[in-house]
Amino acid sequence: MSSPSRSFESDSPASRSSVSGSAALGKNVTVKGQIFAREDLTIDGEVEGTVECHEHRLTIGPNARVQAGLKAREIIIQGSIQGNVDATDKIDIKKEAKLVGDIKTSRIVIEDGAYFKGSIDISKATTRPVPPPAPAASSAAAASAPSPAAAPTPASAGNSGR
Question: What's the rounded Cα separation, in Å, for the pair 103 and 48?
Answer without folding.
Answer: 18
